[in-house]
Amino acid sequence: MLLKELFDKPLKYRWIEKDSDYYVASFSFINSKYNTKITYDVEFDNRAANRHNDYEITFAMTDRDRNILVPKIGITNSGDEIKVFSTIMKIIENFVNMKNPKFLIFRAAENSRIKLYSKIINRYANNFGYKLKFNQEDDQDKTVFNLERIDIV
């Protein structure tokens, strides 16, 4: 199966918050491993950005009150990674089409996630109109990926 085909079947999601500086999309599904309902929130946050129209993307498993159940960007081993990443990719695509941000920023802590995110960026960033400007370590030993819109490069 090709990488592109893996991400062709996103789950249904909905926008639960839309503010000029803060957007949240949410999706839920019944987990195949634990047979329980799992909800993820995907946040696009511009409130702490140093520049206008830069958004940091975070996602995490949440409970019904939107409390984070696992650390942001942590590995959950829920068994439904393809569903989760497919839906997150669709949400990012939808957000980019809505807001056309200049920069997208996200972080990864685990080596396996750093490798996975690098592969996804190399494969999909250009399709969304972005390229990896740089990645660096932050003060919490996480790799920070900075994607810049191609038309401003």
Topology of this structure?
Layout: H1 3-6, E1 14-18, E2 22-30, E3 37-45, E4 54-62, H2 81-99, E5 103-108, H3 111-124, E6 130-137, E7 143-149
Parallel strand pairs: 4-5
Antiparallel strand pairs: 1-2, 2-3, 3-4, 5-7, 6-7
Largest beta sheet: what is the strand line-up? 1-2-3-4-5-7-6
Determine Rg (CA atoms, Å).
15 Å
What separation lies between the terminal Cα atoms?
33 Å
Measured as a percent range, the helix fraction is: 10-25%
Number of helices: 3
Instruction: Report the β-strand fraction as a percent range.
Output: 25-35%
* Largest sheet descriptor: 7 strands, mixed
Shape: globular
Low-confidence stretches: none
By secondary-structure content and strand pairing, the structural class works out as: alpha+beta
Strands, count? 7
Write the H/E string, N to C: HEEEEHEHEE
Oligomer: single chain
The overall pLDDT, averaged over residues, is 81
3D architecture notes:
- The chain has 153 residues and is α+β, with helices and mostly antiparallel strands.
- 24% of the residues lie in helices and 35% in strands.
- It contains three helices and seven strands.
- The protein has a seven-stranded mixed sheet with strand order 1-2-3-4-5-7-6, with helices on one face.
- The longest helix has 19 residues.
- It is globular.
- It starts with a helix and ends with a strand.
